[in-house]
Specification:
Blueprint: E1 9-13, H1 16-19, H2 46-50, H3 55-63, H4 77-91, E2 95-99, H5 102-105, H6 116-131, E3 135-141, H7 147-153, H8 160-176, E4 182-186, H9 210-235, E5 240-246, E6 249-252, H10 257-279, H11 286-292, H12 303-309, E7 314-318, E8 322-325, E9 333-334, E10 341-342, E11 348-349, E12 355-356, H13 358-372, E13 376-380, H14 398-416, E14 421-424, E15 447-449, E16 461-463, H15 465-475
Parallel strand pairs: 1-2, 1-14, 2-3, 3-4, 4-5, 5-7, 6-8, 7-13, 13-14
Antiparallel strand pairs: 9-10, 11-12, 15-16
Helix pairs in contact: 4-6, 8-9, 9-12, 13-14
Family: Belongs to the glycosyl hydrolase 1 family.
Keywords: Glycosidase, Hydrolase
Active site: 380 (nucleophile)
Length: 482
């Protein structure tokens, strides 16, 4: 095999709402992530995460003095960023994926002037990265929607949110144009079709057709993304800006043509979002879905042209597992990233029931590259597991190394087979709060953080076995995976 290209971007991925902390500090406003509560009894289920959220639910969380809200405190990267970035540099990171907290820059989401303290924080973070020749890969919106806009105009359901987002994006591009060359608009943009609140700030009060609200919000995000792409190209001509999708690879359960058709439908539901952002228009296959669900997308004159002119430079995506597509709804199911699935008898699963499928990553790489013919970037991939700290402080996470090794091997094969792959940033390169369950015990990192599910611990950082393994992978550009 030809191996990884010399400019391959090895690194790791995080999100502001899951590791930054500094809740409401230095002028930061409330976000949707700040209302995510940890529930000790088996954590928060995916159904709980995706259920419609009302204004009363949000106000309860904002005033709750008894509950534990881990994302408000994260792992305190806000105050420990120098220590953490030094550890990333020790591993040899070429890039570091992080997100900017929208309400840290615009506390209510739509102020006319940004919060200087928030901007200065990210200046310091980027400077620290660049000191070690680490390229920042910045997500503009990552599950951290300003509650001010949720209360004021029901979030992304309102077209007015486009203007607020474009202002926010332009402030970032102008401020960091000499420091950031890789950008993503919306993290896992397709989640807006599953839950309106988390990434969209949509409150269920008075909504008679939540799907209508969610897909209208998706349209507004498409327009906002396209305008951000155009602004990025104008302000930072040498930058690249991509989309980001939660990839859901779904195999037909059998060779029954009905199962195969279910797999096709699964791809349509999943890839609709990247089709619009990369191809620049709505695919015709969505027309029937919209009819069947009484959805009417309200467009304004010029929207179609904005989409055509604002296509992204590359496609990034998360990949953790594959799933099963079946026309029958019976059988055992297992958990997964955002969606549950039937169990695949050929695959093992993680502690949380996510099916481990490295070959599925190669399948996805080929499907996406064949479909779009733009560079691909794997910006989330990893194994959530319970780590044990030994008496001497060591953490022997061979299971994590095995998971990552098997996926990197498939990436290398895909590259050898012609896929244009830019880079790889495993998720949660340092332990952080889980997006779905708000747990700390579901750990992904190369770096252990002494913190439990209820926010207790020293916050001390320590290196796992995988830290030294990944350092060797980067040093050899993927040649040594032992």
């Amino acid at each position: 095999m030809s191996g990884f290209p010399q400019n391959f971007l090895w690194g790791g991925a995080t999100a502001a709402n899951q590791f930054e902390g500094a809740f409401l500090e230095d002028g930061k406003g409330w976000s949707t992530a700040d209302t995510a509560r940890f529930i000790k009894e088996n954590g928060i289920s995916m159904a709980e995460l995706l259920k419609p959220t009302t204004k009363a639910d949000v106000e309860f969380a904002m005033n709750d003095k008894e509950g534990v809200y881990p994302k408000r405190h994260g792992i305190d990267f806000y105050h420990r960023y120098k220590e953490d970035i030094a550890l990333f540099a020790e591993m040899g990171f070429k890039t570091f994926r992080l997100s900017i907290s929208w309400p840290r820059i615009f506390p209510n989401g739509d102020e006319l002037e940004p919060n200087e303290a928030g901007l200065a924080f990210y200046d310091a973070v980027f400077d620290e990265c660049l000191k070690y020749d680490i390229e920042p890969l910045v997500t503009i919106s990552h599950y951290e929607f300003p509650l001010g806009l949720a209360f004021k105009q029901n979030g992304w359901e309102s077209r007015e949110t486009i203007e607020a987002f474009e202002r926010y994006a332009r402030v970032l591009f102008n401020r960091y144009k000499d420091k950031v060359k890789y950008w993503l608009t919306f993290n896992e943009i397709n989640i807006i079709g599953m839950t309106g609140y988390l990434s969209g700030g949509i409150l269920a009060d008075g909504e008679k057709n939540m799907l209508q609200a969610q897909y209208q919000a998706a349209h507004h995000q498409f327009i906002a993304s396209a305008l951000a792409v155009k602004a990025c190209h104008e302000i930072i001509p040498d930058a690249q800006i991509g989309c980001m999708l939660a990839r859901m690879e779904a195999y037909p359960e059998t060779c029954n043509p009905l199962d195969v058709m279910e797999s096709v439908n699964s791809d349509h539901n999943n890839l609709f979002y990247s089709d619009v952002q990369i191809r620049g228009y709505y695919p015709s296959y969505m027309n029937k879905f919209f009819r069947d669900h009484n959805i009417t997308i309200k467009k304004e004159a010029g929207d179609d042209q904005i989409l055509r002119e604002g296509t992204v430079d590359f496609m990034s995506f998360s990949y953790y597992m594959s799933s099963i597509a079946s026309h029958k709804k019976d059988g055992d199911t297992t958990s997964g990233n955002l969606l549950s699935s039937k169990k695949n008898p050929y695959l093992e699963a993680s502690d949380w029931g996510w099916q481990i499928d490295p070959v599925g990553l190669r399948v996805t790489l080929h499907k996406l590259y064949d479909r779009y013919q733009v560079p691909l970037f794997i910006v989330e991939n990893g194994l959530g597991a319970k780590d044990v700290v030994e008496a001497d402080g060591s953490i022997h996470d061979s299971y994590r190394i095995d998971y990552l090794r098997s996926h990197i091997e498939q990436m290398e094969q895909a590259i050898d087979e012609g896929v244009d792959l830019m880079g790889y940033t495993p998720w949660g390169c340092i332990d952080l709060v889980s997006a779905s369950t708000s747990e700390m015990s579901k750990r992904y990192g190369f770096i252990y953080v002494d913190l439990d599910d209820e926010g207790k611990g020293s916050l001390d950082r320590s290196r796992k076995d995988s830290f030294y393994w990944y350092k060797k992978v980067i040093e050899t550009n993927g040649a040594d995976l032992d």
